[in-house]
Amino acid sequence: MSDRSLSDTELLAARLVPLRRPGQWVSAAVVVVLLAMVAHTLFTNPRFQWPVVWSYFTTGPVLRGLVLTLWLTAAVMICGYLLGVVLAVMRLSRNPVLRSVSFGYVWLVRSVPPLVQLLFWYELASLYPELSLGIPFGPAFITVKTAHLFTGLLAAFVGLTLDVAAFSSEIIRGGILSVEQGQVEAAQALGLGPWRIFRRIVLPQAMPAIVPASGNMLIGMLKATSIVSVIAVQDLLYSVQLIYNQNFLIIPLLLVATIWYILLTTVLSVGQYYVERHYARGSRRGDPRGLWTITRANIPLFRNLAGIS
Amino acid sequence: MTSLVRIRGLRKSFGSHVVLDGVDLDVREGEVAVLLGPSGAGKSTLLRCVNHLEKPDAGFVEVGGEVIGYRYARQRLHELRARAITQQRSRIGMVFQQFNLFPHLTVLENIVEGPVATGRLSKKDAAGRARELLERVGLGGREQAYPRQMSGGQQQRVAIARALAMRPRLMLFDEPTSALDPELVGEVLAVMKDLAASGMTMLVVTHEIGFASEVADTVVFLDGGRIVESGPPAEVLANPRHDRARAFLSAVL
Fold this sequence. Notes:
- The complex is a heterodimer.
- By secondary structure, chain A is mostly helical.
- Chain A has helices at residues 8-13, 22-44, 50-57, 60-92, 96-111, 114-122, 124-127, 146-149, 152-177, 181-189, 194-224, 236-247, 250-279, 291-297, 299-308; strands at residues 130-134, 140-145.
- By secondary structure, chain B is an alpha/beta fold.
């Protein structure tokens, strides 16, 4: 505080000095040192065996496992979400039977760990040796041996799909509930039918609430498919396990799987960003800037960090 | 003149709260009826019963000789399926207090949606008609805007155009200017006046007494779920006979 009052010219001529934030610089320095340590050990610890990692990175068995992981994830997510939409609509319907069935299903599936469900489907043959299609309590038209039908892969697909359906139905239900009732009334007043109202008015407006959680779930599922290795389905993880069981190069082969999972997750995260942007249309919250623009806007931040080290 | 809207013995409760307690009302073809009354009088509920957004507990609403939401057969009113109610609603336009435009669709898509979904017009014809209607409500050239990029008054005018795109024979207005800034009320009322002058049958819930006295053929005063007074605006507004109506009018005028 100065005693004399300052003139307008003095104040206007004065340069603005930003507040110093020493804490930010100290914490940045700590982070940079930690990152440097990690980088250093990654490159200098010979036991990572990077040459081995790269030599297995694109070999046939690994790629075949990768492809299986990818399409199992895709199939499980698509079928799971279709079922999830049905369950969510059932749960929100006026029909008390449908509502209870949906509630009961979600309760049951969410109560049992996915690994246990998977084992149940895999062992279904010991519970029901034969499956038939026919009239309930009456004659059967087709009968198949369960063990022939429920291979590890089908058990994995069914188990994971049912799991996704239960969780996605809750995500979708939350999204639908976030849409204002007035939107439905306006659509009804226009003479739109119930299905059209759901597909054209409610669902698109529910999407901004559904997409982030679903992106999370998709990425989660990509990695969760690795539990199928316990029932000998040759996904990415099981494929590398088969290799390291023979040559005992455990760490490098786990790194092969890890790097592939990281790459795929990165691609999905970028995809999620664009899907979110699409559904933000018409809303002020949507950021119209592209991914690159945002990255570029953050470059000065990295430059500052680099300046300290 | 025949009645386009015929309401008899309409009752509706939410839980133990009686909202409509036996309402009888007639609206002739081309008539503009304004519903006035304190909040909670049942004005909006009455309006919403007309296109079956609320299901009455007793009584009936008839529009153009058709009972809304029911089919009469052998001394019984059978509840209609959703599809049939959808069909009935498509000839009754409704404008909401909160506009309820679809925020994820452009102005043009909002207006085109109804006629296209009901299969009444091709996309091209519907778009042509939408442009005419936007011109009529003074918003020509704003086809590609999204609702949130417009002022409340503009959004409400789009909502009116959207309802008109269905070529309704009756228009319901549920407090169309109550959510607007005072300076934007005029532009919406102007569109409504224009519509009334064109011979549209209108049932309007509003607090705009000026609009009622200038445009309405009939003013209906509701209180406690009943119609306590109705007649030409010159009578009801200038000379209310009922105490409740007199108290309300002296408070709002």
